[in-house]
Write a structure and sequence with these properties.
mainly alpha
Length: 142
């Protein structure tokens, strides 16, 4: 039985999802502060998924609903933020705060933990980082 548990732990350690993709893109950003507005996150995630899901199949895990005139919505936006916050890798959005912070030590932990697993997608993740950093439509805040 102990060997079964060890096998499961090993598989989970190497299990990769869209959360890892976005976490690594954030960790590779030169910015440390990002908008806390979930509508902005949903908009960026929608753009990323539409542009890159053929090159990065993990992005197909993210689904969106559209209710005009509202922006695209996705439960995975909240899941992404919650997972990263529970892991201690970013500060959880508070309605009173406009920014989410990811300091350099946290970024380094993320890069060290999952960078190798996603190495084959370095180019795409670099493009996702650029979208996140876009001053007009991205998540980075000044």
């Amino acid at each position: 039985m102990a060997s079964d548990i060890q096998v499961i732990k090993e598989r989970l350690k190497n299990f990769t999802t869209y959360v890892d993709v976005f976490a690594l893109a954030l960790a590779r950003s030169s910015k440390t502060h990002f908008r806390a507005d979930t509508n902005s996150w949903a908009s960026v995630m929608y753009k990323v998924c539409q542009e890159h899901k053929t090159r990065l199949p993990l992005l197909r895990e993210v689904s969106f609903s559209e209710r005009p005139p509202l922006a695209h919505q996705s439960d995975q936006v909240y899941e992404l933020i919650a997972v990263l916050a529970k892991a201690g890798e970013l500060s959880l959005p508070n309605p009173q705060f406009e920014h989410i912070a990811i300091d350099e030590p946290r970024k380094e932990r993320i890069r060290n933990a999952i960078g190798d697993r996603l190495a084959e997608y370095n180019d795409v993740i670099g493009e996702i980082t650029k979208i996140i950093e876009d001053p007009r439509e991205g998540l980075a805040s000044s």
